[in-house]
Specification:
Strand content of chain B: under 5%
Helix content of chain A: over 70%
Distance between the termini of chain B: 48 Å
CATH topology of the largest domain in chain B: Rna Polymerase Sigma Factor, Chain: A
Number of strands of chain A: 0
Radius of gyration of chain B: 18 Å
CATH superfamily of the largest domain in chain B: RNA polymerase sigma factor, region 2, helix turn helix motif
Largest sheet of chain B: none
Largest sheet of chain A: none
Shape of chain A: elongated
Strand content of chain A: under 5%
Oligomer: heterodimer
Structural class of chain B: mainly alpha
Number of helices of chain B: 10
Shape of chain B: elongated
Radius of gyration of chain A: 32 Å
């Protein structure tokens, strides 16, 4: 470091930024976070609404899937003549498991998960999205 | 004990909102002074400083803990300042620079002579350095400010400016020659 120039530069008076500057940055950050929270809230609300609507046909599809797979018939056999089934319980359990409409159940669970997760995140974003900054 | 910059960043990323405020207040003055002296007077310094810290906040996850925070911070500040200057076309012309970025003074002067003592004495009372800085190109100004005011090493300045070490050293030498020439003239 050149000592002469170091001495010269040491004469520069340090300037103090306005106090409002750091507050301004924080406010800008909060406003940005709020904008993001609002966008998320709108998208998640839409996602909740769509998943809620989608749940109706998906559930009815799952119910018809259960009906067409014969699952109810096998299950009713268990209640009506359970003792007769008991000696063949392993085969019966396997048949019952095979009759479960896995795809339909997965679909219902996926839509329910989307609905609940959307509601949860929308609620989480709500305070930030609607907070009023002065 | 005061927390390091890296610790404050880690704390902020772990949910401690106050840590970023502490970090910002710690470096606000240095960044403000650097930007204030780097950009021409017609450019809003507050705007650049605000933009700098906003970018820092937005990219905090990209900061590598091993890296020196101030080097990263000044890189962002410098780039933000240059973006503003480009928008305002404030980089076009400086007193001693030619169109191709060379400087005729540096080719004709040696950098060995000490500064006359009276210049150093006068500088205490007058805004000599402020005026000097305004007369040289930002390329030279930033090297001098970073080295003499903010005490970065040439390696760190190289990282901030994204230039090789030799280029930084050469810019520093040229800057000193130009300053000396201006001081002698005045």
């Amino acid at each position: 470091m050149n000592k002469d120039f170091q001495t010269l530069f040491n004469t520069l008076k340090p300037l103090a930024p306005k106090k409002e500057l750091s507050l301004g940055v924080l406010l800008r950050i909060r406003r940005y976070e709020q904008r993001v929270a609002r966008i998320k809230f709108v998208l998640l609300s839409a996602s909740s609404f769509i998943s809620g609507i989608a749940l109706v046909p998906v559930v009815s599809y799952a119910v018809s899937g259960f009906a067409s797979s014969g699952f109810y018939e096998y299950l009713s056999l268990l209640y009506s003549d359970g003792i007769a089934v008991l000696p063949y319980w392993e085969e019966f359990a396997l048949t019952l498991a095979e009759a479960v409409p896995v795809f339909e159940i997965s679909l219902v669970l996926a839509v329910m998960y989307a609905l609940l997760e959307s509601i949860k995140l929308a609620i989480k974003n709500m305070p930030m999205a609607f907070y009023k900054y002065n | 004990m005061e927390k390091t910059d890296s610790e404050l960043i880690a704390d902020y990323l772990n949910g401690d909102e106050k840590s970023f405020e502490i970090l910002m207040n710690r470096h606000m003055k240095a960044v403000y002074n650097f930007v204030f002296r780097l950009v021409p007077k017609n450019i809003d310094v507050d705007d650049i400083v605000s933009e700098t810290f906003f970018k820092v906040w937005k990219n905090l996850k990209k900061y590598h803990a091993g890296e020196k925070f101030t080097t990263w911070l000044f890189t962002i500040a410098r780039n933000t300042a240059y973006d503003k200057m480009r928008k305002k076309s404030a980089l076009a012309f400086f007193n001693f620079d030619t169109d191709d970025g060379n400087n005729f003074l540096t080719d004709t002067l040696a950098d060995a002579e000490p500064l006359p003592p009276e210049i150093l004495e006068q500088a205490e009372n007058k805004k000599i350095v402020e005026n000097l800085l305004e007369r040289i190109s930002p390329d030279y100004r930033e090297v001098l400010l970073l080295h003499y005011v903010h005490e970065f090493t040439f390696e760190e300045i190289g990282k901030i400016l994204n230039k090789p070490l030799d280029t930084v050293k050469s810019q520093h030498r040229r800057a000193l020659i130009i300053l000396r020439k201006i001081l002698k003239k005045s």
